[in-house]
Amino acid sequence: MKYIVAIIQPDKVDEVKRALEEANVQLMTVSNVLGRGRQKGITEVYRGAKEMQDMLKKVKIEIAVNEDFVEPAITALMKGARTGEIGDGKIFVLDLHEVVRIRTGERDGNAIG
């Protein structure tokens, strides 16, 4: 089992969701977050003055998957989120040691669904 965390541009959420659904990955948690990477922020002009925004709005998608869905999920995330520009985001794949479904007590692969 793996826990996949993706940080993407907010305007790519719908495309990523569609790509994940096509890969038969339905379960996910989505959060609005702030972050900074190589993009190092942007400069905006507000009321005639330049302001540096170094913490940018991003979206974090978290997915728990069984081994068979790791590569399809990564491929779908890349397909939906990639623009080819700096700031497209990152995908982190972590080992998931245990999962328990609270309602039924099911564990591990069965608890993921």
3D structure, described in words:
There is one protein chain. By secondary structure, the chain is of the alpha+beta class. The chain has a single domain (2-112), classed as Alpha-Beta Plaits (2-Layer Sandwich). The protein contains three helices and six strands. Strands 2-5-1-6 form a four-stranded antiparallel beta sheet, with helices on one face. A two-stranded antiparallel ribbon has the order 3-4. α1 packs antiparallel against α2 (70-81). The longest helix is centred in the C-terminal third of the chain and has 12 residues, at 70-81.
What characteristics describe this protein?
Alpha-Beta Plaits, two-stranded antiparallel sheet, 4-stranded antiparallel β-sheet, 6 strands, alpha+beta, 113 residues
How much of the sequence lies in strands comes to: 35-45%
Radius of gyration: 17 Å
What's the helix-strand series? EHEEEEHEH
How many domains make up the coordinates? 1
Work out the helix count.
3
Cα shape: elongated
At CATH level 3, the topology is Alpha-Beta Plaits
Mean pLDDT, nearest integer?
Answer: 90
Strand order in the largest sheet? 2-5-1-6
Q: Any guess at the CATH architecture?
A: 2-Layer Sandwich
Determine the fraction of residues in helical runs and give it as a percent range: 10-25%
* Biggest sheet layout: 4 strands, antiparallel
